[in-house]
Amino acid sequence: MKRQETTIYNPFLLCFTLFFGWYRFLILFTEGSLEWIPLGLVLLITHILIIVGLSNILSKFPFSRNVIITSLIIRIFFAIIIFLSSSIGFINFLLLFNLRDYSSAFFPTLIAIIFFAGASVSVYQTK
Q1: Contact partners, residue 21, CB within 8 Å, separation at least 6
Q2: pLDDT tens figures, 60-107
Q3: Which whole number is the average pLDDT over 95-121?
Q4: Looking at the domain assignment, is residue 4 inside a domain?
Q5: Has residue 52 been placed in a domain?
Q6: Does 2 reside within a domain?
Q7: What are phi and psi of 119, to 5 degrees?
Q8: How many Cβ atoms are within 10 Å of 120's Cβ, its own excluded?
Q9: What's the domain range around 38?
Q10: Does residue 17 form part of some domain?
Q11: How many domains does the chain have?
């Protein structure tokens, strides 16, 4: 019997996070910055992990100490990239609106950034 993998993340928050990550990707691409290449790779790998499942991918590798440490470092690095790109993408999206006072958007931005942190970390969690 095949073990069914359960997700730890909220799919709505993850879609919200990835939307602003892709928005940041498009901004970097149109500006001509070379930062769009690693961000695009990380976003693509994240989508593959969501579809296939992190546990299924990690089960293909033998579990030695080096593989576990390397996997942990890569997951932390990818989560930080997803978090930063979605946060900056959200702020860039807010700047599109001509608000007279951006201080009114402080608390919604802070709440969204906390949600981005939770979604970006939870997608790389394993049980």
Answers
A1: 39, 43, 82, 85, 86, 89
A2: 767 666 777 777 888 889 889 999 999 999 999 998 988 788 888 889
A3: 88
A4: no
A5: yes
A6: no
A7: -70, -40
A8: 26
A9: 11-96+103-122
A10: yes
A11: 1
